[in-house]
Design a protein that fits this description.
Elements lengths: L12 E2 L6 E6 L2 E7 L9 E4 L5 E6 L4 E6 L14 E5 L2 E5 L6 E3 L18 E3 L1
Length: 126
């Protein structure tokens, strides 16, 4: 399964010391998702978007944030925010907690099946 090209965009941002909230770039502008304090390195957070989709947010130990679709394309379950994070060849990924496929947090590309990708979102701390 491959998602339409319009659903993939850039995904990373660096947190600022004065930032309080996490925002995602949606088609109609920036949307405030949650307080920055909710994000913890190595743990995902799920958030509901205005259109009913879920997004999985991650913060790494260097302060970079990532936002991808929370839906696992292999199982159909909204669980990617519960996955384990790591790196592969220097690229950050999350592994689905169900079937263990790994998804690049920057591009959404599945590292275990090149025909599969999840949507990514531009994210910033504001």
């Amino acid at each position: 399964m491959t998602l339409a090209s319009e659903t993939t965009t850039t995904t990373t941002a660096t947190t600022a010391n004065t930032a309080n909230t996490v925002q995602l770039q949606l088609t109609d502008g920036w949307f405030t998702v949650c307080d920055l304090a909710v994000l913890m390195p190595g743990r995902g957070v799920a958030a509901l978007l205005p259109d009913g989709h879920q997004v999985a947010l991650f913060l790494d130990r260097t302060g970079r944030m990532y936002a991808i679709d929370n839906r696992d394309p292999f199982s159909g379950a909204a669980v990617l925010s519960r996955g384990l994070t790591g790196t592969h060849q220097g690229r950050p990924f999350v592994a689905s907690p169900l079937l263990k496929q790994r998804f690049d947090l920057e591009t959404g590309q599945c590292l275990d099946d090149e025909t599969v990708r999840v949507a990514t979102y531009e994210v910033r701390a504001s």
